[in-house]
Amino acid sequence: MHKNRTRVVCLAMLAMALATLGLAGGASAKLVGEFTRFQNCPWKTAGVERCLHSVTSGGTFILGNKTVTIDKEVTLQGGYTEPTEEGPEAGFSKFFAATNGVTLSKASLAVPGGLLGIVPPESSPPLVKLLSKFFFENSLTGVNSTMELAKPATDIRISELNLALGEGVTLKLPVRIKLDNPFLGKNCYVGSSTTPIKLELRPDTTSPPAPNKPITGNPGTVTFLEKARILRLSGVELVDNAWSAPTATGCGGLLAFLVNPIINTQVGLPAAAGKNTAILKNTVHTTTSFALKKVDEENP
Hints:
With 300 residues, the chain is α+β, with helices and mostly antiparallel strands.
């Protein structure tokens, strides 16, 4: 409890510091120093009060019976409003897309075992693991997975208070997973705009249905940058293992009616809630549109 109060006080201090910066702004922004990471935030858009730049640099994504290690950086960036005060989304802010069109960057991650799903036991000798990768995860038999937004950025929801407290759902993210392989075609997806994978990521402990068991994230460590105008959270771990995943669609092009069932069997789809897990290790930076307007004024 004391830790949570400290985090809230820190966030309040940040808000007070930002409130003194004024509202002046020029026609075009020249961001400098730590502010450059917010260059794609739509801070001039009406209603946008704050900016987010979050980089996932590690973690694990378990979809059905496939486990993918996050070994490439994925960036979530954009702006968001003040939180809604009433209704089912009370406490959550509406998100706005990054100005460069890349709200959620795409990182192609290798699926262990590739198209055939053959993965040697963890206890196997290094040579066996190497040969397995060579034969089953090459350019023909390998499969890569890429997380993409399944809906517009305005469907993303964020709770800055929960992030500050280090408890509760912090980020609601509707996504789909693209599976890439020469035999799967260009439109092989798990999830869609009508049936997205709905991640509800949190820094505290989950309460998933069986067979999954509770897992615990990490709210991270607070640091202030640029004279307390930027809040950085290092070591943030957002988790969710209570989400479900639909069947794969569009795999194999004209042969989708044959290929889709094969992929669904290989991956274990549809996968009910309690059979999937997302663990995202992040470094999060936030600031406000007020701060960016001031930097713009200072650097014409």
